[in-house]
UniProtKB/TrEMBL annotation:
Protein name, entry field: Glycoside hydrolase family 23 protein
Transmembrane segments: none
Originating organism: Polyporus arcularius HHB13444
Gene Ontology MF term list: hydrolase activity
Annotated Transglycosylase SLT domain residues: 160-248
Lineage: Eukaryota, Fungi, Dikarya, Basidiomycota, Agaricomycotina
Entry superkingdom: Eukaryota
Biased composition (Low complexity): 30-57
CDD domains: LT-like (cd00254)
Amino acid sequence: MARHHNVNVARNDDTVARRAATTGKRCKARTSTLASTSTSTQHSSSTHKATSTKKAAPTVLTTDKDDNKSESSGGGNKSIGSVSGLIRITDSSCGSPGATKDITATHGPNGNIDWFNCGVDNSGWRPPMVTVDDVVTVPLDEAVKDPNSPFKACEAYISTFTKYANEHNIPPIIIASIAMQESSCNPHTVGGGGEQGLMQITKDKCGGAPGGNCQDIDYNIKTGVAFFASTLKDNGGSLLKTIGNYNGWPDKMTISSATAAQHSDCCLCMNNLDYLQQTMNGWFLNKDPYKAHMGKYFNLDVCPGRG
């Protein structure tokens, strides 16, 4: 709902400050509900055809956390961790997803950054079709039990994320991931365009807020989830497109258009070209993508005060 803005909240941690500066521009509200259903999934392969339409046991993190372990097919990136299961793919329009068990800066169980960003380096972004049933996620209630979980910042709001995510059949960690990316789970975050709260909802969505308080936890999460769900339905269930849209990625976005604001007076208005990798193989898998320095473009690092 907001593009990369400076938030009007004091930050004491460099990781949090960096995350807040890479939040994203939102799309306008739509009026429908999500049709697809999902819980956390576990898949056995990353081939182009789905091996099953049944949902398997929830994916959980393994105990392998050796940061010096090399990835088997990820271009030599150091492993950040690993999970069981790989994304299930039925759309081969962008080739192989390059999914790997190990999580690295550019790869992971949900695919690799070039696959997520399909087309940005030529004719424009055309995300492959992925639904909420296809991706590998860590259950939010399990994730927060990990003492090193980035979602400790969201701990007070887990039940509310879960309540509204379940109403729309969305894995709760997907919603909490958006909150982490958008506001670092700080309910008092205010975006550069006036976006409010945990989910950084835009002012036009604040009309029904109790007492006019758009930062109200329940209202903010409920409204943000409803917006995400309606956008997901309007996008035919395409999760990558919906996540990108929530962060301001337009159809046919190119590297050139994404970075056009670099030399303007709003450098941070650039689109974060690492956003999908950070979300899909970072937050979804209970990893902080900023501490792990996930991505390959780091295009926002050229902005004043960054790097």
